[in-house]
Specification:
With 428 residues, this protein is mostly helical. The protein is built from 19 helices and twelve strands. It has helices at 17-32, 53-64, 78-90, 143-153, 169-178, 209-214, 219-227, 242-248, 263-276, 279-289, 294-297, 300-307, 317-325, 332-335, 343-356, 363-376, 381-393, 401-408, 410-424, and strands at 4-7, 36-41, 70-73, 94-97, 100-103, 110-114, 121-125, 132-135, 159-161, 186-188, 192-193, 259-260. The strands form five sheets. A three-stranded parallel β-sheet has the order 1-2-3, with helices on one face. A three-stranded antiparallel β-sheet has the order 4-5-8. Helix 4 (143-153) crosses helix 5 (169-178) and helix 16 (363-376) packs across helix 18. The chain is elongated and about 100 Å long.
Length: 428
């Protein structure tokens, strides 16, 4: 039987970051066996639908590169579910009550299921089960009926899903048996917890996956990090491409212990991916990300080599470099952090030194010139460099100082320093 898996979210809001792992594991399982990966939109709970959710799910999967082979929307199969619910009633397996159709649970014996994750054996006493609704009074099926029908008709196996469905296994097994259908293999993933080991929530930094895209995370880093939340590749590698994950992944190797979501670790991994990119690729990604800043995107290529080692997310680019492209904002309190007396006089001396330098300025010459000037003025070199940095950028932290000055250009640099002198320091 051909391996076919599905990712089956409900469109009740943004696709949660935790759902990325479920989708990824289903994708890896299918592609490792040259099988198919389907997207199923489970939209039968009509009261919980949120407009725009389907579009968010689809665009998020595309952004991540988890391309699905088929899209199924459950609401399109409403008549099919009604047909199978009616079949259960006709065969005495279900009954009507309060406008809904209820499935009759067999309370004898036990339900035993061997799960693919850790080959766990789940055993349930059927006497503890209760009848349940399979078709609601609005004519739409419950999850229990809909997914069983879909997984059979679409020949899905294994079924990779969240741990909250473990307790529903007796219901699902008995439904498959009532229809005389083959029961698929199940793989119930462990939970993803926050740093305090409670259920993952927004206070742990968890949010919609598309929000991570807007915050400057790379899809490769998101996939890599989420893959390792519950799985350790046998190669021991921590940085893996999607193709490498496909080659190494096996559901049997997934962890039995709950995973901990750590935003700091995710940011570190994102930074690793940025540093490993070629300058040309990072320039391309930044241009796509900063498409709303046309004056900046034209100059990104020359700045990328200066900042690649300093950013962890694409959103770090603007705060670190905006002063290169536009006039900076100044704050006298920042100048007060620099341990140099008579800063205005020192800045005037710096201007004189800059004006005497051969143009166009070259970054290679700056360090030696201003080291010597610091020595002449009996000023610590670090403080001299910081004074120049703040006068040019308004910031204490920037990309490499002298390479940045070269990019800004001699005219703009001199204008900025003279502006600072005039505004903050009474130097004649």
């Amino acid at each position: 039987m051909k391996v076919r898996t599905r990712f089956a979210p409900s469109p009740t809001g943004l696709m949660h970051i935790g759902s990325v792992r479920t989708a990824l594991y289903a994708y890896l399982t299918a592609k490792k066996s040259t099988g198919e990966f389907w997207l199923r939109i489970e939209d039968t709970d009509r009261k919980r639908l949120v407009e725009g959710s389907v579009e968010d799910i689809v665009s998020t999967l595309r952004w991540l590169g988890l391309n699905y082979d088929q899209l199924v929307t459950q609401s399109d199969r409403k008549d099919t579910y009604q047909k199978y619910a009616r079949q259960l009633v006709d065969e005495g397996q279900a009954y009507e009550k309060d406008g809904a159709i209820w499935f009759k649970m067999d309370l004898g014996g036990k339900t035993v299921v061997t799960d693919l994750v850790g080959e766990r054996v789940f055993t349930f006493e059927n006497k503890n089960q209760k009848d349940f609704v399979v078709l609601k009074s609005d004519g739409y099926p419950t999850y229990h009926l809909a997914h069983v029908v879909d997984d059979h008709l679409d020949e899905m196996s294994p079924i990779i899903r969240a741990p909250e469905w473990i307790s529903s296994l007796p219901k699902h097994v008995q439904l498959f048996e009532a229809f005389k259908w083959q029961i698929p293999q199940y793989a119930h993933l462990t939970m993803i917890l926050g740093s305090d080991r409670s259920k993952l929530s927004k206070r742990h930094g968890a949010k919609g996956a598309s929000e991570y895209s807007r915050e400057g995370f790379l899809p490769e880093a998101i996939l890599n990090y989420m893959a390792l939340l519950g799985w350790t590749p046998k190669s021991g590698k921590e940085i893996l491409s999607l193709d490498e994950m496909v080659a190494e992944f096996d559901l049997k190797d997934t962890h039995l212990s709950n995973a901990i979501f750590d935003t700091v670790k995710l940011e570190w991994m994102n930074g690793e991916y940025i540093r490993q990119m070629s300058d040309a690729e990072l320039t391309k990604r930044l241009r796509e990300f900063l498409i709303g800043h046309p004056s900046i995107t034209l100059k990104i290529g020359s700045v990328v080599p200066l900042i690649k080692e300093r950013i962890k997310k694409l959103t770090d680019f603007i705060p670190l470099t905006y002063f290169i492209f536009e006039e900076p904002e100044y704050d006298i309190e920042i100048f007060k952090k620099i341990k140099i007396e008579a800063q205005g006089a020192v800045l005037k001396t710096i201007v004189g030194k800059l004006e005497s330098m051969e143009k166009p300025w070259k970054a290679d010459n700056f360090e030696e010139i201003f080291r010597n000037l610091a020595k002449e003025l009996n000023i610590p070199v670090r403080e001299m460099f910081q004074l120049i940095r703040v006068a040019v950028s308004g910031q204490l932290v920037t990309p490499p100082l002298f390479e940045t000055i070269e990019l800004i250009g001699d005219r703009n640099v001199l204008q900025r320093i003279k502006f600072v002198i005039t505004k903050y320091f009474s130097v004649v």
